[in-house]
Specification:
The complex is a heterodimer.
Chain A lengths: L2 H15 L5 H22 L23 H4 L4
Helix pairs in contact in A: 1-2
Chain B lengths: L13 H19 L2 E4 L1 H16 L11 E5 L27 H8 L3 E6 L19 E2 L2 E5 L5 H8 L5 E6 L5 H7 L2 E4 L19 E6 L2 H11 L30 E3 L3 H4 L3 H13 L14 H19 L1 H6 L9 H9 L2 H21 L5 E5 L12 E4 L2 E4 H4 L5 H6 L3 E6 L9 E6 L5 H13 L11
Parallel strand pairs in B: 2-3, 2-6, 9-10
Antiparallel strand pairs in B: 1-3, 4-5, 6-8, 7-8, 7-13, 10-14, 11-12, 13-14
Helix pairs in contact in B: 1-2, 4-5, 9-11, 9-12
Classes of the chains: A mainly alpha, B alpha+beta.
Amino acid sequence: MTDPQLLAYANASAEALGIPMDAARTQRVAGYLRLSGSFAGLLDAVAMGPELEPAEVFCPAPFPSVDPASSEGQS
Amino acid sequence: MTRGNSWSGRGQPASVRLEEALARIDLTDGRVNAFTHLTRERARREAGAVDARRARGEALGPLAGMPFAVKNLFDIEGVVTLAGSKINRDHVAATADAVLVQRLRDAGAVLVGATNMDEYAYGFTTENTHEGPTHNPHRLGFLAGGSSGGSAAAVAASQVPLTLGSDTNGSIRVPASLCGVWGLKPTFGRLSRRGTYPFVHSIDHLGPFADCVETLAASYDVMQGPDPLDPGCHATRVQPVSPTLGHGVKGLRVGILGGYFHDNASAAARAAASAAANALGAIGGQGEVIWPDAALGRACAFVITASEGGSLHLEDLRHRAQDFEPLSVDRFIAGALQPAHWYLRAQRFRRRYRDRVNALFQQWDLLVAPATPVAAPPIGTEWIDIQGTRLPCRPSMGLLTQPISAAGCPVVAAPMWPDGTDGLPMGVQLIAAPWREDIALRAAWHLQQAGVAGLKEADL
């Protein structure tokens, strides 16, 4: 993104999230976004197949140590 | 090395040790600014109880009577958990101790207070505008490192022998390095984080600082244990390390990290790492071992940290931005504004990264690298020079620690004193595979016994 595009992005996204920013803050925030964007660009350049899942994957509950179906009805 | 340690002081009455600690804090903390709160009454109660149990001949815990302090993001019953902030001063006091504080107390340790930190842990320098900066006990006016700077400085200043901190991107290892104390960042998911104020749920770790390896290991052992109420606690049983400290390093495949870890280190940092690696019997010459995707690992940690940190504080960023730390508020806002794609890409990369790092540990048992690029700069430093490259000081202090915590590996920061730092310390990372804290601590103990690493008295 060019500097004006970055400033426009910072302003628009801050407005969408309800974060008030004056012009000086917008400049500083855009600078940090540029830095983050440079790191994100490095990661974008890494080939990742669609099968690569995020490091943290939701688990609905611990997998049971005993099969509940096989233990039902047993005394 | 030139300083006594807490392990050899076991057996002294708890009340004596406590009063010595409080007197030292009273004498030195006006200059160091390690503490933000003291729990004198509680500490005297707890020390008295330990001494009473000792007098009755009851069995005592392994840390009986040891004074300790915690970074002020740990809950302390009856105390407001500041997490380095002004905003949290409006919160109600904690109704219970954090899990790790409870476990240390159960082992007989005596809590004396809470320590200074970067606001909400977003920093490597403990230049806290609300509380004032923590000073390096080895040179007042210089950085203590952060974000757990108060905890490292308290040990370096001989105020207490044991403290707790948190480490997301290096917040235990950086201040341990700059202050010259032992620090342990355990495997991600090893210790319960319940009862602490979070920064980045995906990467937050907790761990101890200590004045000797025995205390570091003993405190770590008593803090272990599963916690089903902390979704980030993956350990299902205790794996004590203290019994194996003296097993030595013979047979361990020890390597020194080159590439990224060489290029981003000063000459003194390289020398410290080389000295540690040689003392541990490292195989091959410097630069032999390349950590996979180190720069990408740092990028991954940077993006995840910014997004999660910004999102966590979004409500206050909307309404109370003026009450945030001026040094970090704009970074928090920028993090909140990051596109979701950046964050998700980083999380997907992290899985691949973890697999590559774990594969490296099929070939190595222990890897050695500097903990910080340089020794402590003066407080307020904006830029540092690393091998002719000018870099912003505050984020760059974590250059060498971020790639390791992104992979979740356990690391001991060993205090070294290389030439070329004008007498300031410089830490070395002893890095092991996930869940192998025992190996990192065996290596640490070996360096301590060999006189290669250890604390020095701070002239305060």
